[in-house]
TrEMBL record, chain A:
Compartment(s) where it occurs, according to its Swiss-Prot or TrEMBL record: Cell membrane
Topology of this chain in the membrane: Multi-pass membrane protein
Organism: Blastococcus aggregatus
Membrane-spanning parts: 27-44, 56-74, 80-103
GO CC, alphabetical: plasma membrane
The keyword rRNA-binding is annotated on this UniProt entry: no
Keywords annotated in UniProt: Cell membrane, Membrane, Transmembrane, Transmembrane helix
Pfam families for the chain: DUF1290
Protein's name in the database: Small basic protein
InterPro entries: DUF1290
Family of this protein: Belongs to the sbp family.
Main subcellular localisation: membrane
Length: 110, 248
C-alpha cells in the first residue's frame, strides 16, 4: 500500500512542480529511473512470493540506482557513455521482463 | 545481473512472515520515500524527454550536422533579410519619386491649363473696352490686338467672354465678328493677364492698337486691375495626329 501511495504522490508532485533536470544529471536520471523500476518490480515479485523484506528492498533499490548511475558515469568518462547506458537499459529491461513474467504467473497462474 | 537476489536472496527473512509483515516504521517510511522519489523522477524524466531528449541523446556527428544545418539556414535567412530590405528601400524611394513626379505633373498641368484656356486663371492684368461704333474693325484689327497683347507678355486672355488660346481664330465680317465661331458684339470687353504696365505701354505705342482703333473711329479704354479673374474656358483640344513623345 505504502509503495503505491508513494508512487502516486511522487507522480503528482512531479506533475505539479514540473522542475527542470540539472544538466549534469540529465544522462543519469533515465537510467536511475529504470534501475529503480527494476527494484520495484523485484520487490513486488518478492511480495507475491511471500519473501519480501523491507531491508533488502531498500538496499537493492538504492544500490541498483547507484550502480546504474555509476556505470553510466564511468562510461561517460571512458567516452562510451551512450553505449553503456544502452547496455544498462537492456540488462535492466531483461530483468524487468523476467520479474514481470513471474508476477504474471502469480496473478494469472499462467 | 546477479543483483537478482532482492527477490530471491531473502528466503530466511521471508520464512518468518510475521516480522516481514509488521515492517517497522523506519523501513516503511524509507520505502515510501524511495517510491515517491521514483514516481517523481519518472514524471520529471517523462516530461523532460518530450523536448530536450531529442538533442541530448544525439551523437556528436549528428549534433555537428544539426549545427551546420542551423547555421547555413541562418545564413540563408540573413541573405533573405538583406534582399527584402533593399527591395523595401527601392520601393520607398520609388514611392517618393512617384509622389514628386505627380506633384510636378500637377503643376505642369495647371500651367498648361492656363495657357490652353482650359483652366480659369487669376492675377494682375488689364481690363480693356474696345468700342467700335461704326462697325469698322476687321478681323485683322482684332488679330492685331491679340498679337500685340501676346507680344507684350500676356499670359492668357478672354475676348468678350471667349477665352483666347493657341488655336483661336477670328473670323467674320466687320460688325459681326466671330471668335472661335462665337459671335461677339461691340463694345468688346477684353480681360488680359500679364504685367499691367507692359501691356498698357505696348497698347499705347505710336502706331499701336489704341491709335489704330482710333483711326477707324473707335476708342479703347484701359484699366489696370491687380486682381483679375479670367474664367471663360475653352474645350480641351484633342490631338488627332500628334502623340506625346514619352522620352522627356
Amino acid at each position: 500500500m505504502i509503495p503505491i501511495l508513494g508512487l502516486v504522490a511522487g507522480v503528482l508532485l512531479g506533475l505539479l512542480l514540473d522542475p527542470t533536470v540539472p544538466l549534469g544529471l540529465q544522462p543519469y536520471l533515465p537510467i536511475a529511473v529504470v534501475a529503480a523500476l527494476d527494484a520495484v518490480f523485484g520487490g513486488f515479485r518478492a511480495r507475491l512470493d511471500g519473501i519480501f523484506d523491507a531491508k533488502v528492498f531498500v538496499i537493492s533499490f538504492v544500490s541498483n540506482v547507484v550502480v546504474a548511475a555509476l556505470i553510466v558515469f564511468l562510461g561517460d568518462q571512458l567516452g562510451v557513455g551512450a553505449q553503456l547506458s544502452t547496455a544498462v537499459v537492456v540488462v535492466l529491461g531483461i530483468r524487468i521482463f523476467g520479474n514481470a513474467a513471474a508476477i504474471r504467473r502469480h496473478i494469472f497462474r499462467a | 545481473m546477479s543483483t537478482d537476489p532482492p527477490p530471491v536472496d531473502p528466503p530466511p527473512a521471508g520464512e518468518d512472515a510475521p516480522p516481514a509483515r509488521r515492517r517497522d516504521l523506519p523501513a516503511a517510511l524509507l520505502i515510501g520515500v524511495l517510491t515517491l522519489l521514483l514516481g517523481f523522477a519518472f514524471t520529471v524524466q517523462v516530461r523532460n524527454s518530450d523536448d530536450e531528449q531529442a538533442l541530448a541523446g544525439a551523437r556528436e556527428e549528428d549534433l555537428v550536422r544539426i549545427v551546420d544545418e542551423v547555421s547555413s539556414r541562418g545564413v540563408r535567412l540573413r541573405e533573405q533579410i538583406a534582399d527584402q530590405r533593399s527591395a523595401l528601400r527601392q520601393l520607398t524611394s520609388s514611392d517618393s519619386e512617384t509622389a514628386s513626379a505627380l506633384e510636378e505633373a500637377g503643376t505642369r498641368a495647371a500651367a498648361l491649363g492656363v495657357l490652353n484656356g482650359t483652366a480659369p486663371a487669376v492675377g494682375p492684368g488689364l481690363r480693356m473696352t474696345v468700342r467700335d461704333p461704326d462697325d469698322e474693325l476687321r478681323v485683322t484689327d482684332l488679330i492685331d490686338v491679340i498679337q500685340e497683347l501676346r507680344g507684350a507678355g500676356a499670359e492668357t486672355m478672354q475676348f468678350d467672354g471667349v477665352r483666347v488660346g493657341l488655336s483661336t481664330a477670328v473670323t467674320g465680317a466687320p460688325g459681326s465678328l466671330l471668335i472661335d465661331g462665337r459671335p461677339i458684339t461691340a463694345p468688346y470687353e477684353v480681360l488680359v493677364l500679364g504685367s499691367p504696365q507692359d501691356l498698357e505701354t505696348a497698347l499705347n505705342i505710336p502706331g499701336g492698337v489704341v491709335q489704330h482703333v482710333g483711326s477707324r473711329g473707335g476708342s479703347v479704354t484701359i484699366e489696370q486691375v491687380t486682381e483679375l479673374l479670367v474664367d471663360a474656358l475653352r474645350p480641351l483640344p484633342e490631338a488627332q495626329y500628334a502623340a506625346p513623345d514619352d522620352e522627356d
